[in-house]
Design a protein that fits this description.
The chain is an alpha+beta fold. It has a seven-stranded mixed beta sheet with strand order 8-12-5-4-14-17-16, with no helix packed on it. Strands 3-6-11 form a three-stranded mixed beta sheet, with no helix packed on it.
């Protein structure tokens, strides 16, 4: 139903069916002003009821955006840590903000929210529009003063060791950061993580058990909350006791480096004796050149394996270090 407002801003709806008052439904009124739509609070459709709509001027200042609460739920999967974040966005200013209307090129895609660089499979849901570019998601929507917009963001990061450290830099003032980790898991090999330990940095409160922080009372959690973060600052926490084993390969590379170093020492000692004569010195130079060529070829092979995904970045770094020790 539609109606025109009079000079006092009052609109009367006279064509509403009378049986609507007994339907149990709730209604709200909508008004459009300066290209933005504003709604009243929902109300029962009673005779003579009044629906008040607060209309705001339109602003172009993104600094009014704040995150009232950010809850991060961390789930442990096999070789992955899955994050589900719940953002409650608010407008702390006195004008309505339509992100689509912001003139700066910086906000052409929307308001940016940076996630850790290694975040993958990012999915955003909620009101408005969103898009993902690399490890940043962008949001477009309308925020009225005092109103809230709730976004859900889901992504994952790989994990291969018993300790996992998470750090995220915030783009907007954040009133409260929460981190919760369910003890139960979703992979069959280890249905519970009783040895899991959460180490939050700077959080005011930590807790453990079922139903903490208003969560489900049939699931055990470890959690922390009560951290305020300013724009440009980060929040950090570490998980310990994850059901992942340390990679043995890097230690093998380290042992290889020690062995190679020992070989170099022995070779240098032998070379010192050979250098006593001109013939020995010439033979030494030829052997050193041959050894250097072999090491350089192995370094090229490591870079190729890294590019093709045969080695991880960490494994490639250890192997390169061991090989470069032979060139020292």
């Amino acid at each position: 139903w539609t109606a025109m407002a009079d000079a006092n801003g009052v609109a009367k709806f006279s064509e509403v069916p009378r049986d609507l008052t007994t339907s149990g439904l709730r209604v709200h009124a909508t008004s459009t002003y300066d290209g933005l739509a504003f709604n009243s609070a929902p109300s029962a459709p009673l005779d003579g009821s009044e629906l008040e709509i607060t209309v705001w001027e339109k602003g172009l200042d993104p600094s009014v955006v704040a995150i009232q609460n950010l809850r991060t739920v961390v789930e442990i999967w096999e070789n992955y840590v899955v994050f589900t974040q719940y953002y409650t966005l608010t407008n702390d200013g006195k004008t309505a903000l339509d992100v689509k209307m912001l003139p700066d090129e910086e906000y052409e895609k929307g308001l940016p929210f940076k996630l850790p660089v290694k975040a993958q499979g990012i999915n955003v849901s909620g009101p408005g529009e969103s898009m993902v570019v690399n490890s940043t998601f962008y949001w477009k929507g309308v925020l009225e003063p005092g109103a809230r917009a709730n976004l859900q963001v889901r992504f994952s990061m790989s994990a291969h060791e018993p300790e996992f450290t998470y750090e995220q830099t915030m783009d907007y003032p954040t009133g409260n950061v929460e981190v919760v980790v369910p003890i139960q898991t979703k992979f069959e090999k280890l249905p519970r993580l009783d040895a899991l330990e959460l180490r939050p940095l700077g959080f005011a409160e930590s807790d453990k058990g079922a139903g903490i922080f208003g969560l489900r009372d049939d699931v055990d959690f470890v959690g922390a909350r009560g951290l305020e973060v300013k724009p440009g600052q980060s929040f950090t926490f570490q998980l310990r006791g994850l059901p992942f084993h340390r990679a043995k390969l890097p230690w093998a590379f380290l042992a290889l480096g020690v062995i190679c170093g020992f070989v170099v020492v022995v070779f240098a000692s032998r070379a010192h004796k050979q250098a006593a004569s001109q013939a020995g010195r010439k033979e030494l130079l030829e052997q050193l050149r041959a050894q250097r060529e072999e090491v350089l070829e192995e370094l090229v092979a490591v870079e190729k394996d890294l590019a093709e995904g045969v080695l991880t970045t960490r494994e490639a770094e250890f192997e390169s270090t061991a090989l470069r020790a032979q060139l020292a």
